[in-house]
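Side project, low priority. Logging it here so it doesn't get lost.
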Amino acid sequence: MVEPMNWISEVVRPKIKTLFKRETPENLWVKCPDTGQMVFHKEVEGNHWVIPGSEHHLKMSAQARLKMMFDEGTWIDVPLPEVAADPLKFRDEKRYADRLKDARAKTGMPDAFKIGFGRVGGLPMTLAAQDFAFMAGSLGMAAGEAFVRGAETALDKRTPYILFSASGGARMQEGILSLMQMPRTTVAIRRLRAAKLPYIVVLTNPTTGGVTASYAMLGDVHLAEPGALICFAGPRVIEQTIREKLPDGFQRSEYLFAHGMIDQVVHRHALKETITRLCGLPHPPAAQAGDGLL
């Protein structure tokens, strides 16, 4: 026997629900990590990922970094070398090849670095940005090759080289091959220094591990965004090792500035002006006309 359909619950109610249903995007709001304040996603994005009011600096993609810095948001992408995707055939809970595939689908990037060449404040510059969303911005063979290619571009074009660091350190899935990128990037920086080309580092949240122990702390000038964690080993690891309570703000950019480890803490909105001013100081001849600048 077929039960009669209840037209009020089966017909009328679904139509009413559909009529008044609103699709709410999942990323409509952003919550401030400091204050818990809820802010419209578009408002935060339009403010270069700085929370209005609290001024908390959120993580920023490499693409957004370059767009913020280059004049009119346009630049030439520097082609990056291809490297062996999984040289050690590494596997933990998941195959390294699968982790790379997921990170590339998530970010639209081949690896953690994006390099651009263009004008900043009217001056030709080569910019390198690490994207923390790509496996925590970790340093592996591809990232090392990218950094070196950026340095080679700056040498070829006779421009300053600007790095925006954001990393959890060396990429464990590549073992010793990852650690070898530390001396390789150091050699590239020595070549910039020999050519008397400025190398400026902007330390963003977080910059840790082998990246801090190599190219992130070898700049001619070290700038840092407010509140950025900058360290080799994190505060939790240090507290567990020495079994003592660390000072407030330990390893944050303001603490490092107060103790002479970095040169200046600069708000994200003032980075372009600050870097332009630094690069406008007397330096070797700039790139010549017809060098491919936009």
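Brief comment: The chain has eleven helices and nine strands.
Revisit when time allows.
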